[in-house]
Amino acid sequence: MDKLGSNPANRCLLTPLGFLERTATVYGDCPSVVYHSTVYTWAETQCRCLRLASALCSLGISRLDVVSVLAPNIPAMYEMHFGVPMSGAVLNTINIRLDARTISVLLRHSGSKVVFCDILSLPLLHDAISLFPSCHNPPQVIPIEDPYEPNTPTHSYSLTYEKLLEMGDPDFKWIRPESEWDPMILNYTSGTTSAPKGVVHCHRGIFIVTVDSLIDWCVPKQSIYLWTLPMFHTNGWSFTWGMAVMGGTNICLRRVEAVAVFDAINKHKVTHLCGAPVVLNMLSNTPESVRKPLPGPVHVLTAGAPPPAAVLHRTEALGFTVSHGYGLTETAGLTISCAWKGQWNKLPASERARLKSRQGVRTPLMTTIDVIDGTTGQSVKRDGQTMGEIVLQGGCVMLGYLKDEKATKAAIREDGWFYTGDIGVMHPDGYVEIKR
Ligand SMILES: Nc1ncnc2c1ncn2[C@@H]1O[C@H](COP(=O)(O)OP(=O)(O)OP(=O)(O)O)[C@@H](O)[C@H]1O
């Protein structure tokens, strides 16, 4: 027995990039990405991602170079999640709501070689680049035009995203990682509690969190997924790659406004969407006169901030089925979720909402989680009252912070835990709840 082990047939690197090829085989003629009247199939999405990867290589991008993108939820943003790492580069998505100074810092810190930029964010990017010191080479800017936006700024770039794709080879043999630990994603924390830090994730970690999130949320094949969560927010909690696994349809929405969301749900028969509690609040406060009825069951996953029980209650009262999860940029997505039990359905609505507002238990592929006392390092009592820090262990914990060994060591300690910085309690039933 002890002579058996890894061999050339099972020693395969875990990477989410391979999902696309399978999906293009199974669902090649099914819709992959929809934006206004543009509808791509999975065969077309695969082709566009390969073209992107090939064209980036011909621009001189090589392994582990950083390629950034500043864009809302438009088809190009989705394609970047496969096309950029398929060139061997590391994808860095940037929040379009940041100011020019922060974007300038992120571009310099990441050493970004190319920035793809949504046409409406071009002035912001120009401001950011104008803040570069003269000794620092700016990245190459490639605008992403949008035929559905009437008033876009004019520009003088000869190479745009679509022209770049035309240059690319649809049969390109994409660049596979040399190791599953190779960096694939760079995401900056927004810096709400400290200076922005560049969180680096590898192919293996992204593979694990993607599969974990699909299992945890029970996402079925060919779901219709509405992009109400920005893809620049932790890569849309990994559902960018997840929708490819399930052959789902990505409905892209540039602006998350209540009327547009209800229209899209109704028109496309949306089955799934994600959003921070603020999105649920928006949906549940939409006046009845502008709300369209839900076309069928719509599953909503909320995370990113504590959802007030009242917001959960109101959202479910509209017919949405709400799930609640917890995660950080440092874990590439959700690692704790409020696993729901059938017997809780019998409880009064307010009690259900109270239980659902707890963050929950580890997701199936996380190794372990705990709430520990900061001084003793021991687990706190499971009494729902004693506070401690939430700590995690699992395959989707980041590799570390880019060029910041000190912060990496402070977050991932010798005792084997990743310290989240979040304070919570452990309830007697093993469910964690964040307390502030
Ligand atoms: N379900 C949830 N309930 C409560 N808080 C949550 C939940 N999900 C995420 N969070 C909060 O969001 C944080 C992670 O968010 P993110 O990684 O986007 O960080 P950020 O806003 O950039 O943070 P930073 O303050 O570290 O710069 C968690 O550490 C936690 O505080």
UniProtKB/TrEMBL annotation:
InterPro entries found in the cross-reference section: AMP-binding_CS, AMP-dep_synth/lig_dom, ANL_N_sf
Gene Ontology MF terms: 4-coumarate-CoA ligase activity; trans-cinnamate-CoA ligase activity
Ligase is among the record's keywords: yes
Ligase keyword on record: yes
Pfam families in the record: AMP-binding (PF00501)
Alphabetical list of SUPFAM superfamilies matching this protein: Acetyl-CoA synthetase-like (SSF56801)
Gene3D superfamilies: N-terminal domain of ligase-like (3.40.50.12780)
Keyword entries, A-Z: Ligase
Top-rank taxon, per record: Eukaryota
GO terms under biological process: phenylpropanoid metabolic process
Cofactor(s) annotated in UniProt: Mg(2+)
AMP-dependent synthetase/ligase domain segment(s): 20-402
EC number, as in UniProt: 6.2.1.12
Reaction(s) catalysed (UniProt annotation): (E)-4-coumaroyl-AMP + CoA = (E)-4-coumaroyl-CoA + AMP + H(+); (E)-4-coumarate + ATP + H(+) = (E)-4-coumaroyl-AMP + diphosphate; (E)-4-coumarate + ATP + CoA = (E)-4-coumaroyl-CoA + AMP + diphosphate
Family: Belongs to the ATP-dependent AMP-binding enzyme family.
Annotated PANTHER family: ACYL-ACTIVATING ENZYME, ACYL-ACTIVATING ENZYME 8-RELATED
Record's protein name: 4-coumarate--CoA ligase
Gene source species: Rhynchospora pubera
Lineage, opening ranks: Eukaryota, Viridiplantae, Streptophyta, Embryophyta, Tracheophyta
